[in-house]
## 1
Amino acid sequence: MILTFDRITYNNLLAEISPKAIETPEEYDRLLAVAERLTFAKHLTPEEKALYKLLVILIEVYETQNYPIDQSEPHEILQHIMESSGTRQADLVGIIGSSGVVSEVVNGKRSISKAQAKALGDYFQISSSLFI
């Protein structure tokens, strides 16, 4: 069953939420709360999906302007993921190389190759692009 997009329903959602460029922390919190509600809702209508996409764009623009994130080095990201998941260097032996290679990669003394990035992405079930 294909659901069609209903402009009247979408316009009603827009009128209810009144999304606009976010300029204050209060407006950010309000739209973030709506986006989070939609994130965890089951079976969104096409109109709710469109509203959600719009809110994500507005939130991303605000966050980029107000909460810039410093770019981390690939080995720092790996260290963080390892710490968060309770992974030890020994757990990565055989995944990305010998214990010496793992130690060098984790400590930033050796770059992470594309093959190692893919293996790490598969192992941690995340995007390999984080390690490149």
## 2
Amino acid sequence: MNRLPHRWPLHWQIISALFIGLATGHILGPENRSIPVFGFAGDLFLRALKMVIVPLIASSIITGIAGLGSSKSIGRLFTRTFGWYMLTSLLAILLGLLLVNAFQPGLVDGVPVGEKMGLSELDPVTSAKISGKGANDLANILMRMIPENPVGAAAEGKILPLIVFCLMVGAALNALPEKLSAPQCRFWESLFQVMMKITGWVIKTAPIGIFGLITMVTATNGLEALGPLAKYAAIVLAALLGHVFITLPLLLWFTSRISAVKHYKAMLPALVTAFSTRSSSATLPLTINCVEEEVGVSNRVSSFVLPLGATINMDGTALYECIAALFIAQAYGVVLGPLDQFLVVITALLASIGAAGIPAAGLVMIAIILDTVGLPLEGVGLILAIDPLLDMCRTSVNVLSDSCGAAVVAVKEGETGLYKN
């Protein structure tokens, strides 16, 4: 009996769907009556993506924070690790914010590209509500981070207050005796695994959804509608490269006198694996091996820092989320003021903590940020086609930052003899 051929990797399925959708849309043209069918397939995918957001983010954050451990002996180790991760994520987000504001990929000759790429025009009330914030709204923004009713916030899709509440729940479980916290931890871990499974099913339908979306956009607006994606992708890649070759090397040297060249060379096998698998979690065993065998970090540090990093440290994902959110806002013709962009930065930072280390998890996080600033989820459709390639790149950056954190913490903990191999 002949064996069935191995399934294509998902990223190749998505890339193939992109090109097939381009060809199909070009052949059909705008007058074909079947175009709404393709749009329907894309809309179904987006609705399924939105369906998993609340339970996935809640279970992911609570499980991750509750699993950190509350022993006082690891307090110093946790403080240094968490501080590194928050610093690098924040710097990555700010770099993305700088480039997306400087080059504005969502505009062509000053005109928003949303209509050309098939987005529905925002109604004036929604547009004014998004871009009309002033300085007096800062207190309201901070106030909304604390939900009066966490269940109501979840039901209404108010993600930012839900994230804050889940962080508090995870911290509280950490502070309770194991006898009291264990049942809750088992529940949230079980729910997280269930949502990971459902999210995996949804992501597997991405080729169909992308095929439908790209076919509709191409048939309606022509191939030139996808031109702005190249500029958007170039800005994301430029920001990722800037973080890898400027931000992280400077931090490594000035905090611990570590040579980025030596570190990157030691981590090359893990980075290649992260690029191909698009999963920091799947790469974790190899990351630990490289950090311990090639860098020389002790198991005490690596076994704490790296699993924690795979859970809460997503430099590349946070940077990408920020650029994608502002690109979508620009495409809609919405001007996000300083306070709106501050909200994007804070949400990207918090959302990156809860991002699952699986392929395409960033798409779920993007939906969270769009919801926070009031933009339609439909905007995710703009970036689906190019996401697989960018996902490979940002996953490698995520893993690299994790490993840098392990090396820095090892130096701060007094370990010597690093990079002797």
## 3
Amino acid sequence: MQERGRHYFPAVDLAHFTLEAKAQVEQEIARDFSAAFTGIKQLPEGAKLGVYLAYVYYRKLFNRIRRRSPQDLRQGRIKVANTEKLALLVLSYLKYSFNWW
């Protein structure tokens, strides 16, 4: 979580990152995602697809993080494979194009 000098949760003591602390961080992130989706729909047409794609990608990453234990998160980076990114791109484009989102 501090890979490459980044610290994503400044208010969290990573040495004592418990399941309860993780759940609290996840709740905050889930609220942010909910608000972000509402905001995306209000963006100008020229910006919606790109921002929506980023939203979908980070939502996928967040879901992977949710399935990991606090100890697993300290072990290394959580990633989305390139093939999955391509699938997310196609699916996001279709959902956006047909207004299925």
## 4
Amino acid sequence: MEDNKLYTCAYCYKEFEPKRRRVQKYCSNTCRSKAHHARKSLGTELSTQTDKLATSNATNVKDKMTLAGIGNATAGSLIADTLKSYFTKNENKPATVKDLNMLIETLQLRYHRIKNGTPDVMGKYPYFDMLTKEIVFM
């Protein structure tokens, strides 16, 4: 039979049953994360060398807003938008207010031509009458 030994969490000091063998120091990911942040903020010896490098580099970097930076960002956005509109097909572009108004105007018309309808013997094409709901040849 297996021995159910309880471990003590290295952060909150509660007893827990480990899910893994001999490698689990904390009772949950929350305690593990809190312990990491506590080590990082205190600057103790337990923090890793990469944590120290990351915090020292982050404090040395200062973000400045310059006119040149704003100009570069604007130019980059304009170039990206131009390339995107150039390489996007018309049927894949989003509808504009003008497109929607034209669609509404077309739908409000009384007669709509039936595109796959064949003309009659007189050469008149079939149209659907929106008012009477009939097919009319014009």
